[in-house]
Design goal:
With about 90 residues, this protein is α+β, with helices and mostly antiparallel strands. The protein has helices spanning about 5-20, 55-60, 65-90; strands spanning about 25-30, 35-45, 45-50. The protein has one domain (about 5-90). About 45% of the residues lie in helices and about 25% in strands. Helix 1 (about 5-20) packs across helix 3.
C-alpha cells in the first residue's frame, strides 16, 4: 500500500473536480470489515474500485424513495471513483 501525502491528495481532489470524466455502472457492496463498503464503477472506460465507510452511500445509492439522499450518495461514489482513477493514472 502506498502512503500518500496530504498535499498530493489535495492536488488530486482539485484535479478531479476540474477534469471531465465519464463514470458509469456505479455499484456498492459490503466489504470485509465492519462498516466498510466497496464502490465499483467504470471511469473513462477503466474499471475502478474504491473503499468507503459512508453507510449512507450504501443505504441510498439505489433508493429512489429519497431522491436528495440518493443524489448525495451518487456524488459521494463518483468522487471516490474519480480519486481512485486519478491515482491509477499516476501509478
Amino acid at each position: 500500500m502506498y502512503l500518500i501525502k496530504k498535499e498530493f491528495v489535495t492536488l488530486l481532489k482539485q484535479n478531479a473536480k476540474t477534469t471531465n470524466m465519464t463514470i458509469t455502472d456505479i455499484t456498492i457492496k459490503r466489504a470485509s470489515g465492519y462498516g466498510q463498503y466497496l464502490i465499483s464503477g467504470v471511469v473513462n472506460g477503466v474499471e475502478v474500485t474504491a473503499r468507503t465507510t459512508d453507510s449512507e452511500a450504501f443505504d441510498y445509492l439505489n433508493d429512489e424513495d429519497y431522491p436528495e439522499k440518493q443524489q448525495q450518495a451518487i456524488e459521494h461514489c463518483m468522487y471516490k471513483l474519480e480519486l481512485s482513477y486519478e491515482i491509477l493514472q499516476i501509478f
